[in-house]
Automatic annotation (TrEMBL):
CDD domains: HTH_XRE, S24_LexA-like. It holds the Pfam family Peptidase_S24. GO terms for biological process: DNA repair; regulation of DNA-templated transcription; SOS response. Residues 9-63 form the HTH cro/C1-type domain. One of its GO terms (molecular function) is DNA binding. It comes from Chloroherpeton thalassium (strain ATCC 35110 / GB-78). This is Transcriptional regulator, XRE family. The keyword Transmembrane does not apply. Keywords: Autocatalytic cleavage, DNA damage, DNA repair, Hydrolase, SOS response. InterPro entries: Cro/C1-type_HTH, Lambda_DNA-bd_dom_sf, LexA-like, LexA/Signal_pep-like_sf, LexA_repressor, Peptidase_S24_LexA, Peptidase_S24_S26A/B/C. Belongs to the peptidase S24 family.
Amino acid sequence: MEEMIGDRFKAVRKALMLNQDAFSKDIGISQSSLSEIENGKFSPGSDIILSLCRYFNIDSNWLLTGTGKMFLEKKPESENISEAGDEPSAADWQLQAEQAAKTAASRSESEALAGDVAALKKQVNELFGLVRGRMDVLEDAMVEIPVFMHRVSAGPAVASSSEIEEYIKLPTVLLKHPKRSYAVRASGNSMVGAGIHSGDLLIVDQEAAIKHKCIVIASINGEQTVKRLLIEDGELVLAPENSHYQSTPITKEMNFSILGVVMHIIRTVY
């Protein structure tokens, strides 16, 4: 753990073998203030630093940064020191204390920034954990369905196959019967009025109830098509959603079956 200025206040006091009461009186502060400084709860001002350094001949650079030695071995002889004897003037001490205070402020800002960074890292880690948890939930809420290789005609009926091109994952909430659902692509433009375009992926439910005007995948004599199913007076009609195409009435002579109801349309727009 990084040493703070309060730790060095305490180190000076221990080196001088003084208790908090005597030490605080020597530097002109209350015992409670000294206790807060030593515990890192209060940052000493330049006046307190000046008082400590002058009274006990402490190196202010060491006090603020921990660099160097605790006690001054010899008074420096420089332009910043009064020429009237070896003792620095009050102005010299004030300048040194102000410089030390600036150093302390800089260190405090760095320590605060380090604390902010640590808190931010913690928040990011918590966020990643939350996202991972949500992804796990989403993964559990997905189901795979097959995409058949053949295309169903949104036009004249076309031949079909049972070959699977790939599997796709969809949210289970979209599928009432996931195990009896599949996907197939549309081909042609006979159903543009219903929003089905060539290349769209149709999600089909084989267990959905067949109702009047629902859109179905139908097989006529072994060929598949997608159309709107009309049920009128017991008669079945496959109707397009494009005026350029004609409806197909279903007759007894046809080998006809409904392979499922179109529940969703997936389109790639880019």
